[in-house]
Amino acid sequence: MRTFNFASEAEKVNPLVPHTAELVVGAIAFTLLFLVLRRAVVPMFEKAFTARTEAIQGGLERAEQAQLEAQRALVQYNEQLSSAQGEASKLREEARIQGAAILEDLRTKAQDEAARITAAAHSSIEAERQQAITSLRNEVGALAVELASKIVGEALDDQARQSRIVDRFIEDLEKSQK
Which of 52, 58, 165, 172 is deepest in the core (most CB within 10 A)? Predict the structure, then answer.
């Protein structure tokens, strides 16, 4: 039998250097793989990248559009706010003027009512005064007639005479007080 000398064969073959057949097969496999990837996989990746780029661009455009709309809305809001503040200030001023007018009207009505109450009180006092004077005259007259009848010694039954005596007596009293 033949014995192999592995040591001499191992010295002849370098494990770091590939065989020519392996290099050819590797190059063909790499070329095939490259062509398959270039034809099938790369277009799919490019399509995905294009879609992703378009989506990002669309998102940026939508974001810019939304930002413009937000700025327009902010400007409109600020205009409405300043308009509302102006209107509120005008309403406050009108309310203040109306309040002052209402206060003046109430003050005038209160003064009129006070004047009416004062006039009614004066009228009432004057009526009571006249009533008191009339009552006092009647009482003084009755006392005067009674006193006169006692002094004169005869009855003074005549009404007209009594009235004249009472009137004279009161006039004399008024003159003596002045």
Answer: 165
Q: What is the DSSP letter of 153?
A: S
Tell me the residue range of the domain where 109 lies: 18-177
**Dihedral of alpha carbons 96, 101, 105, 111, sign:** positive
| Assigned domain for 10 exists | no
Please state the domain count of the chain: 1
pTM of the full predicted structure?
0.39
CA atoms within 13 A on the CB side of 47: 6
Phi-psi region of 32 (alpha: psi -120 to 50; beta: other; left: phi over 0): alpha
| pLDDT confidence band for 173 (50 / 70 / 90) | confident
User: How does pLDDT run across 62-116, given as a tens digit for each residue?
Assistant: 999 999 999 999 999 999 999 999 999 999 999 999 999 999 999 999 999 999 9
Residue type (1 letter), 64: E
* Residue 125 within a domain: yes
How far is residue 153's CA from residue 33's CA, in Å, rounded to a whole number? 168
12 lies in some domain: no
Closest CA to 159 of 175, 138, 178: 138
11 within domain boundaries: no
- The angle, 0 to 180 degrees and rounded to 10, between the axes of the packed helices 42-152 and 159-177 is 110
